[in-house]
Amino acid sequence: MNFKKFFKIKYSLLKPKKKEILIYDYQSWDFAKILFQREKYDFLYVRYEIINLYVLISSILKNGLRNLSYNYKKTYVEYVSPKIIFSSIDNDISFFLFRQQISKYCFILVQNGMRDNFCVSIFKNYLKLKKKKIIFDYIFLFGDNDRIEYQKYFQAKIFSIGNIKNNSISVKKRNKKFNYVLYIQQARIDRLENSFQKKLWTREKKILNVLAIISKDLNIKLIVLSKYSETYKNFFISETNLKNFEYIYSGLLNNNDRLELIDNSLIIITLFSTLGFEALARGKKVVFFPLKNCFPSLKYYKNYSSSGLFWSSSENFLVNQNLIKKILYLSESNWGKISKYYVNKILRFDKNNFQIKKIINTISSKIN
């Protein structure tokens, strides 16, 4: 048992109130607050950050200690009596299994990040073991690639609508006083003992060296949006040829700030980060430099060529430099033409989440 976690648990004695919506897993809150009014939902803390003792005791008296975790969740749901059970933790098999056990309620899932073959292997294994698809209600995914893949494993109504967070913030016209290239850093540089992370960082160093030359030659400011605090800036300087650049720690920015940084950039460069694909959905010029066979995600979607109109797995410095310059100087109209097809496939943009809100309102009106 993790005793540190045990002593951090909070407890509630209050009987849960009836709510129209129940949020499965508190970590889905960032998505729930965009779609639902706060007074309409409650949380089911499936990581047990908060344990409701009223529900726990009620569950034990009714069912004993057998299957305690499941019976606790089931009892909580029964007290809340929601129309909808919602989650954005799309790689948690327990949410899908919970739906197999409780079919009375309408279950809704939204995707929260780019997925790879490891994620869908959970569903593949279920299909192989049970010899049938997972029964679910509504699944909202980033793009058509995801929808086609999920249809193999789910019997559900599946829609491709983009990233809800990205959709919720309107695209702003670029302020021409800003003149910068934005690099979205991706590798976990505190985990370089991991072979995959080491490969990512090796790749990033090469691309950052390309950008160091381009920003100097074209007199364009370079901003590195990093996963790590300002104390890591010297690490970037020592590992690459970067000298004159602005370093921004993404952890200090909220979603609005990050997307404002995206909208005001001349061009965005990344390996294959979700934020990069959100920028693509917002109509921004983006160039991806994934590892081989990693565009747009590792061994998951249909096969994409190792290099394309705005991505490259090449190790050649000049090839990658020329690709960045080509997209940088491409007209906005031509960029729109070549990127639109891929936007719909990978990550759509649905302004103000019109589609999912319309569907949820229809669901709520039909359920008594």
Description:
- The protein is α/β, with parallel strands linked by helices and 368 residues long.
- The longest helix is centred in the middle third of the chain and has 23 residues, at 195-217.
- The protein folds into 2 domains: 3-167 and 351-366, Rossmann fold (3-Layer(aba) Sandwich), CATH 3.40.50; 180-346, Glycogen Phosphorylase B (Rossmann fold, 3-Layer(aba) Sandwich), CATH 3.40.50.
- The strands form 3 sheets. Strands 3-2-5-6-7-8 form a 6-stranded parallel beta sheet, sandwiched between helices. The protein has a 5-stranded parallel beta sheet with strand order 11-10-9-12-13, sandwiched between helices.
- The chain has helices spanning 3-8, 29-35, 53-63, 68-80, 93-101, 117-130, 144-150, 164-167, 195-217, 233-239, 255-263, 274-281, 317-328, 332-346, 354-366, and strands at residues 10-12, 21-24, 41-44, 50-52, 84-87, 106-110, 134-141, 154-160, 180-184, 221-226, 246-249, 267-270, 286-288.
User: Which structural class should the secondary elements be placed in?
Assistant: alpha/beta
Radius of gyration: 23 Å
Total helical elements: 15
Encode the helix/strand succession as letters: HEEHEEHHEHEHEHEHEHEHEHEHEHHH
Q: Judging from the principal axes of the Cα atoms, what is the shape?
A: elongated
The CATH topology of the largest domain turns out to be Rossmann fold
* Overall pLDDT confidence: 92
Secondary-structure arrangement, i.e. CATH architecture of the largest domain? 3-Layer(aba) Sandwich
Level-1 CATH class name of the largest domain? Alpha Beta
Measured between the Cα atoms of the first and last residue, the distance is 42 Å
Instruction: Give a short account of the largest sheet.
Output: 6 strands, parallel
Low-pLDDT parts are none
Overall strand count: 13
Number of separate domains: 2
Strand order of the largest sheet: 3-2-5-6-7-8
**Oligomeric description of these chains:** single chain
Percent range for β-strand residues: 15-25%
Helical amount: 40-55%
